[in-house]
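re the bet — no i am not wrong, look at it urself. input seq straight from the record:
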Amino acid sequence: MAMRKYVEVNISAKSKTTIKYVMKMLASVAEAVIFMFLGVSAVSSAHVWNTEFVLLTVFFCLMYRVIGTAILAFFFDLYVCQRVEPKTVANWVSAPVHPLIIPICTIF
């Protein structure tokens, strides 16, 4: 990833495509191996249920998700140059669009 801008200019389009799909395959294999080990460890040892740990984990995951989203939204809003009406955005996506104005960021 760090060398991408240097490597892309020195390889052919066919090689770019090959590298792209090999990286996707490696990511899928790595994910499968991780979940395989997770599944094996989940069924191979005795577990003790800890309600406090589970509730605190869920709480902190949700809290950090909200904080992270708020911080990223703040920085996103700093660079908003134009606002697009929901009718226009509905042409881009097939999901229902919220009636509020949706900001579109263009960073220069």
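see?? The first strand starts at residue 80 and ends at 84. told u. also Residues 97-102 have pLDDT under 50 and may be disordered. so pay up
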